[in-house]
Write a structure and sequence with these properties.
The chain is an alpha/beta fold. A hairpin with a 2-residue loop joins β7 and β8. The chain is globular. 30% of the residues are buried.
Amino acid sequence: MKTFKEIIIDNITCEKPIGMTIRYNTQRVDKRIKHFVFVEGRDDKLFYSCTEEEELANAAAYFYSVRSDYREGDEKIVGKSSVLYCFKHIKNNKTLCNGIGKCVFIVDKDYDPLLQYTPYHFTEEERHYIRRTEGYSFENFYILQENLQLLFRSMHLTDEAVNEFQTELKKMWKSLWTYYAAKAAITLNYYNKSVPGYSSKYKPKDIFIFDGDVAVDLEKKRLETQRMIDHINTNSELQEAYKGFKKQLKESPYQYMRGHDVYDYLLYYLRMNHGVLLRSLQDMDDYSKNVAKMTVNMVY
């Protein structure tokens, strides 16, 4: 049996959500640290720490969960859930809550701007503590008009090239918005006990290839979309959600196109159409210079 000290060390090392709050507790007395930033994962940390926002870039300590197998009861607490878990834990802890003013909690908006589809209940006041991305996730910042212009100019590409990219992105979106709407309706009802569970046959990585001359496996996309729609038609709540998301997603692609797909498509497009290899997270110096110039707005 492990000692209490060993359990504490394991929690900190493995970055379980409780480990995140334990490490926060050990660092909150360090006067060199100005802010404590809780994010969904490593890539989120790399992005936000490169911005020019004072709270996120200068003397900030970052916390995120990396143990995808950690469970609280029957539910995994990783990514977005881990950030929300930490907020609730710190806010409701008599010792930790005193420092919540120096804490920054950032989550992807996904399809849920009001945090209604999470395992936790949030009051209107509590939601103001949680920063949410303006688009689906932080990768969507790349396709803001002003950010695209900055990025393309840094690679000696014209504003006309930006317009051409946006045209192609819209074409791609039109072929995918029903897929995303169905996925949104099912995903956001994950915690809804009155809705039957769904198991996908094809994961996003099977559908969005972005390799060689192929961007999307159209057949797998078609089959997975049809499977989701067939599942949605078995439940009235899913049908209502799907109907609403179809309208939202059709009208606002920037807001709802999945961030990973946006970023991967951008890399793919630049490589295929301009012969440009956009440096990614592997080259932090180049990456940080690009991100530092970007407009990064949050929803509170």
